[in-house]
Design goal:
eight-stranded parallel β-sheet, seven-stranded parallel β-sheet, Rossmann fold, alpha/beta, elongated, 25 helices
Amino acid sequence: GKWRGGIGTFDNMNLLPDILRAVKRKGYRLPTPIQRKAIPLAKAGHDVVAMSRTGSGKTAAFMLPVLNRLKEHDTSGAGPRALILSPTRELTMQTFKFAEDFGKYTDLRAALLIGGDSMQEQFAQLADNPDVLIATPGRLIHHMDEIDGFNLKSVRMVVIDEADRMFELGFSDQVKRIFRSLHESKQCLLFSATMPAMVAEFASAGLKDPQLVRLDSESRISDDLEMRFFTVSSGEKLGALLFLVKEVISSEESTIVFVSTKHHVELITKIFRDSGLKANGIHGSMDQTARTININAFRNGSVNLLVVTDVAARGVDIPLINNVVNYDFPARPKLFVHRVGRAARAGRTGCAFSLVTHDGELPYVMDLHMFLARKLQPCTKDVGDEELSSKEVTYFGRFPQSVLDSAFEYLKLKLEDADVQNMMQTANRGYKQYLKSRQGASAESCGRVKAMDKESVHPFLFNFISGDGKAEASLIEYQNMLKTFRPNRTILEGDTQRSQAAANGGDFMTVKRRHHDKYIEKTKTKNQEPEPSEDKEEAEEEDGGKEKAASKRARKKMSLLDELDMDTAGGGGSHKF
């Protein structure tokens, strides 16, 4: 299509011709909202604090102003003029790739400083007089300590990417030390998905009159994203997940599965692979080389499933995700928004599937909807496609039992493997530890969930199950009705012919209590009387009253129930059960 140089396009941002050429070569047509707001402010020389989620185009929002200001390679050898800090190795590598792409038609040079790579190679990059340093804080400080004369006094533009994540990972002291080594006249661009107190305090202390760019991204979900919430028991989750990735989600679509622990990453990845699916996993304890290989395989389409923990996924920006699956539902609404923000980007549609337990995780789903200001309601057999597509109301429903039964039989075969059994046990122990550290849902959400009606089968799954899905939904509603049925009277208080005859139309239990009260009181009185002394019993036996004394001892040992039965049998009206 034709490039239009109107308001709101890259042509209108006064970028250098060589940089604009690279932007168009990369396929960028129109700037995203964060780019449209942040780039002009950065080009004007302002310090900027920008709040934007992953996938919003924030990397280009700071990379284009940086390269545009540097213009061309500095041959004086004064040192790097721009510094970009990222919290993780993967995110730093992605940022470096953007620098290469956008600087393709310039002679600007960039150096990549990350942990896990050869120090000698990085020494060589620094000796090549780079214009831009793209680094993690730890490795940058390592170079500052190791190389005599190496400093950052020449840096005039600094970027902190994913600042909230940077501080969460404990890099606060390192970032502050780096900032102290920078020139006072530096320009600073700070990008963060959220704005916790530590980041806000740092921004107010380290930036000069910063311009705030906020798109309310942390409480918004893309209108192009569909959300499906399915209730299952904890023991049914694995079967439900397998059904989703094998039957519902196309093998041509890229899908990220979020789990709670690294043990679940290893377990689910193995089960996926054993089931013939192309899957990789990444977690925080994984070797850096293995993580890079697995991420690249997912990025280039060699595998379509990536199983991750939140810690491992935070710094991984993978474009064009089709689906997100929450195997374990996050405890914080903002974390959910961050997870699903990876799908439905740049005008593409996407879907977020969530498997939740009714008592353990559904209150967190309610927390999320209160945060998003949306209604949450259970599915009934009458919910149709129009209701499911509503942006004001979200429906949650059960997974079909017929599907779960079939999946359970399939999984039984997989779980016969000794390695899988051991991994399952380890994952279960890890999940118990996770639950201890997970924050609780709000009391209001717990109360709302308890007050809700029971949900039926989710209509979205009707097209993926054999038979009549609506018939199964009707059956489940009938079962739910039976479960919640409460009779007005107990079986002993029912109006049976026997009770009516005994009570002459009165309440049977009342008559029963009235009839036996006198025997109970009589027994209590006897138990409170002093026992006859042994001398008296011996005297009675010597006087020929042995049978009478033996009868007394037997009555003392008689139980209350036996005595009641005896008295009732001789009392006329038969009320024994």
